[in-house]
Amino acid sequence: MAILARSVAAAILLLSTTTFGFAANKVIIILDASGSMWAQIDGKPKLEIARESLRTVLQSVPADDEIGFMAYGHREKGSCDDIQLIVPPQAGSASAISAAADSMKFLGKTPLTAAVKQAAEALKYTEDKATVVLITDGLETCGGDPCALGKELEASGVDFTADVVGFGLTADEGKQIACLADTTGGKYIQASDEKALQEALVETVAAPAPEPAPAPAPAPAPEPAKPEFNFMPTVVLAEGGDPVTDGNAWEVYKAKSDGTRGDNVTTEYGDYKANLEPGDYIVVARDGEAKTEQKIKIEAGQVYKPLFTLNAGTLILHPRPRQGADVASGAAVVIAYPGVDNPPTYYGDTKVVLPAGDEKVTVTIGQGVVTETILLAAGRVIDKDIIVGVGHVVANAYYVAGGDKADGSGTGFKVLKAKKKIDGTRDEVTYAYGPDSKFDLPPDDYVLIATVDLAVVEQPFSVKVGEFQDLKVAMNAGVLAITAPGTSKIEIFETKKDINGNRKSIGYAYDEKYQAAIAAGDYAVVSEKTDNSKKEGAVTVKAGERVELTVQ
Hints:
Elements: H1 2-13, E1 26-32, E2 40-41, E3 44-45, H2 46-60, E4 66-72, E5 83-91, H3 94-102, H4 112-122, E6 129-136, H5 146-156, E7 159-167, H6 171-182, E8 188-191, H7 194-203, E9 234-236, E10 248-255, E11 261-269, E12 279-287, E13 290-298, E14 307-309, E15 312-320, E16 332-336, E17 345-347, E18 350-355, E19 357-365, E20 368-376, E21 381-387, E22 391-398, E23 411-417, E24 428-433, E25 437-441, E26 444-452, E27 455-463, E28 468-474, E29 477-483, E30 489-497, E31 503-509, E32 513-519, E33 521-528, E34 534-541, E35 546-550
Parallel strand pairs: 1-4, 1-6, 6-7, 7-8, 9-14, 15-21, 22-28, 29-35
Antiparallel strand pairs: 2-3, 4-5, 10-11, 10-12, 12-13, 15-18, 16-17, 16-19, 19-20, 22-25, 23-24, 23-26, 26-27, 29-32, 30-31, 30-33, 33-34
Helix pairs in contact: 1-2, 1-7, 2-3, 5-6
């Protein structure tokens, strides 16, 4: 996984010189944060690939480029208005964008057309040159027309471009959104898996436009033979260590008069050799999360072989739910290394070069969290397992023991601590929706609250490290289907009245029909028309059975 991640990262870094380039324009990156991004490609969630790729790209973007970040579907399920410009276009936004992407939930719909329109407006596309980069794994689900929007933005924009990455889409699906790029002069890239993503990104790299041919100049006087290269730097992890020539990067900047970085000259990888024009430069050597820089003065006829020492080591981590278990590919690995403000997040097997010192490693598998501090010396390689210590639980609800499984949209599960607090309440641990809900939990006693529409059941359970549990919750419920022609509201009540003569309302719907799972028992059903007239019916619901009632 580490080798493929490096190759994808190397290809993606080239985006700084492609049609997706960030060098000259204000850019807003739009990330699809819909629930479909949890789908896996070659055993790895697409959202993880997107996060890692985005973080790698931003590491190579010059600090003075103005990059913004927008997402949709990251806060609410089923909402077409869940669009947010999280980081406005600004210089030095790389850390803020990476942190936003790493902490983001993926759960909503795909209003991609509205998102592109909002991004264009945020960039003032009718006044300034503007670029939007859309990364989506799905098609429009909120009624928007991306093709019509592309024509609108092209017609009214000063110089607007939309580049679109169709991540995991089929060719037919891609045609439905490629028009957004085509009509604005952008690129559409089809990527069906990690390998295809890498190939697509490399394929779209465009060489810079050639400089106009200079006017013929008088033939210069013969010059002494020049060396093949005048700049041949070497980078090592520690003093006396072997040169690093794989996975590392070099960034070369012009030096300003005050000694700060100017324009980016080039970004190269591996064993770097070059001919630099005479002048002052700032050269940055990177490997993983470690970097160092030097100011270099190049003079004509001289050869420079500077040594860069990263003072770094290599940390290899294998997050496991228990001792001897397979690596948890979805485990989140956060490493707070010396000098970092926003620690990066990795997933599953992790191999990374870090500045030497105390590395605070926090690994999360489900609700299990463990933190270790690892002392990493310069030049050292530490390879170790991180044991989180959780058990795995799969929860399902059944209308009755041995009966049909509840698999509708109204099925949900909430996990609480079994021990009550002094006020009688319990701490909520986590929740999930739908059948086969999965939980990774640290060892403890818990209560599972299963909900199927109007039926609610509590079931205690305990978790041991490494133990797998298949929790089957018998809801002792049936399905009640109510029809009330001409009514504006249907409401279900318990038949038993309290001491004040009131009946408890169980559920209601503003419709002529209402169907829901409900605990077995006797109920009163009241229909109400717009003129406030009411009709009432009685019904008995049996566990595991369906009953239909008409109230007129």
